[in-house]
Amino acid sequence: MTSGVVIGVIGAGRASDVAYAAAREVGRLLAEAGATLVCGGLGGVMEGACRGCTEAGGLAVGILPGAVAGQANPWVGLPIVTNLGHARNIVIAHTAQALIAIEGEYGTLSEIAVALKLGKPVVSLRSWSDVPGMTRADTPEEAVRKVFALLSGRNP
Amino acid sequence: MTSGVVIGVIGAGRASDVAYAAAREVGRLLAEAGATLVCGGLGGVMEGACRGCTEAGGLAVGILPGAVAGQANPWVGLPIVTNLGHARNIVIAHTAQALIAIEGEYGTLSEIAVALKLGKPVVSLRSWSDVPGMTRADTPEEAVRKVFALLSGRNP
Amino acid sequence: MTSGVVIGVIGAGRASDVAYAAAREVGRLLAEAGATLVCGGLGGVMEGACRGCTEAGGLAVGILPGAVAGQANPWVGLPIVTNLGHARNIVIAHTAQALIAIEGEYGTLSEIAVALKLGKPVVSLRSWSDVPGMTRADTPEEAVRKVFALLSGRNP
Amino acid sequence: MTSGVVIGVIGAGRASDVAYAAAREVGRLLAEAGATLVCGGLGGVMEGACRGCTEAGGLAVGILPGAVAGQANPWVGLPIVTNLGHARNIVIAHTAQALIAIEGEYGTLSEIAVALKLGKPVVSLRSWSDVPGMTRADTPEEAVRKVFALLSGRNP
């Protein structure tokens, strides 16, 4: 079994209903496109994305900050247990070929910046948008469409 | 999609033909038992295990020490790219619920010791065997049987 | 020997002459105030800060991304060799009690965001300034004065 | 200020009185020789070594597994706060030019193995001694003498 394209979804561990629903839709669209989802495996945006992905039959990988798999949200299909704290964000940025940021706060900003430093495309769905180099999207559909376009080297 | 039981296979990046074949058989048996394989994703024992697992339709996760997915052996189904060097061994020990060590040198010994410290069962297939707390096995079949017995809390 | 207050200085590995001179002045002022400097140990802003600190008799700690101490700039007094790549930035953010960012690009932004997430005061000296929660400074003296004020819980 | 030679001391977080006293003596001898001590910064052997080093005027660096400097034993001169859990052991092995292991259990064994893999000399003072490549010592004086001999490329 191979994972196909690996897309990261990043965002805060506590999310509004709107952000959760957007993340779930992003997760679903990624799974339907045959991508593997990688995220931080906790709540909020991470849970929404895992849920949408798993409900659509995809593989949702949760790269966890703590020492036990039980920390994962219930929609994580494969927990990667790091016990590295925030340093696990760097692993997400390295593992994902491109990322979609949904809302989010300082942790998300940190991950966006690392991903851009690594040269990974990053799409912002109502997330930090004044960071040069990000691509804006207004809907989950647009975010997923643009992330695949960026990966193909096409103009999003 | 969920990953089921996650079993680690550890061993040296350069392996004898015998060790490679044993690792491949271990990988096959793990996949047939419905387990997900996690390993370091490079050559030797790691490649053998990934090959057997992938050939049998299982998911072989490679937790890579370097910064690029291209470092993975061709049988890795899902590369987790850490750029953490040897520290990625700690992630393998945390992620696996139990481990099988096949031959191996200092790196394998280090991983065995971390796994034992974390309280994970470790089966030694012609690997370091004078470390207290390990369970010996002489064949791939015995190693896989014992690792599942240990996970179930049964006497191997 | 104890290290006293530990202040982080972050910024790009390639710096303009102006940024290098500012970093050197910051390093000198920190050493004169009895602080220990912690930084990424490479060139540019990191080297300027280490140089100023070491010239003034302080301890400049370089938390290096690579696997060898020889990677450090010549003004590092104590190299901490991590081989963790960008994840070493998280170690800097945890180790420093407060940070001064001097110019810098995505890597610096990432470190600023992690530090703010950890609740550490961050002073921006011509660095990313539109991140909420940072304190601006226009000169090295002002940056050092403000970083100590923030650490004391005073209004900078 | 420069750190001179950096020597790691590793061992369990809970130590017998004999091991604590031995570690303290090792720390004192390292400081008197002008070396910087690096260790895990917690209790037991780590505390003994830091105490001896600091009492003799040396710098004792504690590379901590947790997220706060307050976790350090009271004799740590410079806390490096990693929040990396056991992965901080890898940082100790990379940072030290040579290591002395005093008693210790699985964690110490893991660190010994990583250090040997990195090609660092390791002296065992009543620690794991059946690992090929280690140098045995029976007293703190012998351990420190041998570690410096090994660093100089001399036959210990």
TrEMBL record, chains A, B, C, D:
SUPFAM superfamilies: MCP/YpsA-like (SSF102405)
One Pfam family recorded for the sequence: LDcluster4
GO terms under cellular component: cytosol
Leader peptide range in chain numbering: none
Protein name: TIGR00725 family protein
